[in-house]
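Could you help me review a protein record that somebody else here produced? What it holds is a sequence and that sequence's fold in C-alpha cell form. I have pasted the whole thing underneath without changing anything:
=====
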Amino acid sequence: MSVEIRTIASQEEANQVAALAKEIWTQHYEPLIGLDQVNYMIEKFQSGSCIYRDISQNGYTYYVAEDGDKMIGYCAVHPEEDKTFLSKIYVHKDYRGQRIARRFVELVCGKANARGDRYVYLTVNKENAGSIAAYEAMGFCKVKSICTDIGSGYVMDDYVMQRDL
C-alpha cells in the first residue's frame, strides 16, 4: 500500500469527499448518534456543496489520503489567530490502524507549527472512545466539554482536545 496525501480544490473533488464521508459516517456514527442525526449532519456539514464552500469561501484546507486512485480518508483544517482547528479527520474502516490519521495529524501540526501557532485543537464525540484513545496517543489532551446545538433538535456532545506545539 502506497498512500499519498494531497489537497483538494474543485467541486468534483469535494463531491468525492462527500461520498466518502457518507460511507464513513453511516458506518461509524450510526451506533453513536443514530441514523437520523447522521443523515442530518452529513447534509449540513459533509455534503459536496458544504465542503466546496468551506474550501472556496471559508478558508478551510481539505487533505485527502489516496491508495492508488481510491480515496480512503480526509481531514479539514481551518487556521485561526494563534491556533489551528482540525475540523474533520476521517479514515475508511478498511484502512484504520495503518497510521493514516497519524500522518494527517503530523501534516497539520507541522503546518500549524510553521505558521507559529501555539496549538492544534479538535472536537470529538464523548462516546467515540476509539477516536479519543487515538487522539490521546497522538498527543492530544481533553481541555473541556461542550454541547453544541446544531439545529433540528440535535446537539454535538463533544470534548475539545488540544495538542500543544
Notes: Residues 16 and 48 are 8 Å apart (CA to CA). Strands lie at 3-7, 61-67, 70-79, 83-91, 119-125, 141-151, 154-164. The first helix runs from residue 11 to 33. Residues 3-164 form a domain with the Aminopeptidase fold (CATH 3.40.630.30).
